[in-house]
Amino acid sequence: MGEFLRNAWYMAGWAGELGENGFTREICGVPTFFYRLADGSPAAMQDRCPHRFAPLSMGTRDGDLVVCPYHGLAFGPDGKCARNPFAERIPAGSSVPAFAVRELDGIVWLWRGDRDTADDSLIPAFPFVPDAPGWRTLTGYTLMEANYEYGTDNLLDLSHIEFVHKGSFAGQGVIFAGQHSVRDEGDTLHSDWWMPDIPPPSVAAGIFPPDMRTDHWLDMRWNAPASMRLNVGVCPHGAGRDAGFEVPQAHILTPANQHQTHYFWSTSRPSEAANPEEDAFLLALFRQAFDDEDKPVIEAAYRNVQANLERGGDFWAEKPLSLGIDQGGTRARRKIEAMLKAEANG
Ligand code: FES
Ligand SMILES: [Fe+2]
Questions:
Q1: pLDDT by residue (tens digit) across 57-95?
Q2: What does the radius of gyration of the chain's CA atoms come to, in whole angstroms?
Q3: Which atom, in ligand 1's list, is nearest to the CA of 68?
Q4: What topology does CATH give the domain 136-345?
Q5: For the chain, which residues make up each domain, given as ranges?
Q6: Is the Cβ atom of 85 under 6 angstroms away from ligand 1?
Q7: CATH number of 9-122
Q8: Which residues surround ligand 2, an ion (CB under 5 A)?
Q9: Is 26 exposed, middle or buried (0-12, 13-18, 19+ CB in 10 A)?
Q10: What angle do CA 242, 227, 4 make, to 5 degrees?
Q11: If you measure from the C-alpha of residue 43 to the centroid of ligand 1, how many angstroms do you get, rounded to a whole number?
Q12: Can you give the pLDDT at residue 171?
């Protein structure tokens, strides 16, 4: 079974989830409690007291200390036990793993490696997630019963739109009319589709007349472990991308554990104005696409290999057929393998 990268940023949740009480989410096999310090900055620690393992999220707060609900040990944001109600002495081994956390672009990010090695420059940018000027952004979440790399395969190979998303995004053959290219840019991977001279795709309905010829693009950017941005664009055929419009989306996968994945997604529409009807329509469309269309096929495909993976096999041992269109997911897997190897050689 694969391991998880340590020196990488994992999306833990939307910043709005960090309310009064914080939230708990399993990240790479570790139930983790996210909360805000008195100065508003986010913090995270394993949601398990080292004494009798009570979830610290059930406890109370004393300033920046998290107080265990069971017997009252209190922990600081660095995970160190700061108070033992039964003695002056703080017992050895009483720390809880605590993590470096950042809040950027309306997203809470967790660094799995040592706190003092957290490298902020590696946080991928999603500047459109909080409503950017002129845009309104909708966010969502789905728990997927599959390893996160099977979700990456899905997102880096959008040819599945033609088959899986007949009821929602409706490819109508345009993917087959397009060209697919995958390229590296340092540690970033791009998996892009370019579909010139086609009728307006569904995303352009109401923006361009149905009898117009358009150029359409789907540009996917990937950063380890599985944080993806999709730009969905349409312009009048031959007029250049600047003459059209582009909708940015976030598709960010975080392993809960080997067999479950948190799928955070966002889409934006080019208007700041509240429009509950349009929001409801878009949310329903995306929920249909991800919950009713992607999720069942990804989970069922994963179930077909899960038993072998649990017996110690890996993805490659299943001898997956290569069709060319899948090279984005393949390269992402290779990049993760190389990064894991580099971490192991340290
Ligand atoms: S379980 Fe936390 S102090 Fe006992
Ligand atoms: Fe999909």
A1: 999 999 999 999 999 999 999 999 999 999 999 999 999
A2: 22
A3: 2
A4: Naphthalene 1,2-dioxygenase Alpha Subunit; Chain A, domain 1 (3.90.380)
A5: 9-122, 136-345
A6: no
A7: 2.102.10.10
A8: 294
A9: middle
A10: 160
A11: 20
A12: 66
